[in-house]
Amino acid sequence: DIYEYEEEGCKVVAEEIADLIREKQQKGEMCVLGLATGNSPRGVYKELVRLHKEDNLSFSNVITFNLDEYYPMEKTSVNSYNHYMNELLFDHVDIKPENIYVPDGSVARDKIKEYCNAYEKKIDEVGGIDLQLLGIGRTGHIGFNEPGSYMNSYTRIIALDDITIDDAVKDFGSLSEVPKGAITMGVGSIFKAQKIILLAWGSNKAEIIKKAVEGKITDDVPASFLQQHKNVKFVVDIYAAGEL
Ligand code: GLP
Prior knowledge:
Order of helices and strands: EHEHEEHEHEEHEHEHE
Protein name: Glucosamine-6-phosphate deaminase
Distance between the termini: 12 Å
Radius of gyration: 17 Å
Number of helices: 7
Number of strands: 10
Bound molecules: 2-amino-2-deoxy-6-O-phosphono-alpha-D-glucopyranose
CATH class: Alpha Beta
Structural class: alpha/beta
Organism: Balneicella halophila
Domain Glucosamine/galactosamine-6-phosphate isomerase: 7-230
């Protein structure tokens, strides 16, 4: 779906999420959301907070799994995705703390494998993700699944691509401050979701959106794997759609 303005697209996606939460509520079921960070979903979280405050949307039946976190990274650091999620969403809604899962970038190196396997297992245990939100990096990454990530990759630690590290300098202040790794759900983890919505705004995403949507399916562009998912929607603005 193509919108003229980012704000408009974010509102429609937030409404869709709210509808799903309410539908599950009526059935007495939990709603499992897969969440993304970065700039792209900011407007969605803003609108969800508004719907909570002004339209009685409750998150009491919501379980969330975030896609990724830098490694190494303290949870409390202002640059952590843990911090981002608290600031933008969790601190402002009635989600139960025990229903929030964001990868922990401070687990000891020798415990990472075990930690990642447990994260993946937890997603399956609660019945899998109903709706997964995604952004896209200029390398074509989804989550932090950089080029070279396989279709059957699951939650694991990865090394960040140089382009991704460069793009993160604006957040961290300098190159030396940017973590060189991350814990991320895999392409396979993402694929298990019932529905996927990928968000992209602005002309600097136009080239990679074209490759992801119209290009060859290849691990050089991990987002291109999405062409094979049964229920996926790209929500973009006219600028990100500029090369389609
Ligand atoms: C980071 C995140 C991704 C996100 C991407 C794009 O690398 N790990 O999940 O999709 O950035 O970010 P933005 O939405 O800021 O363009």
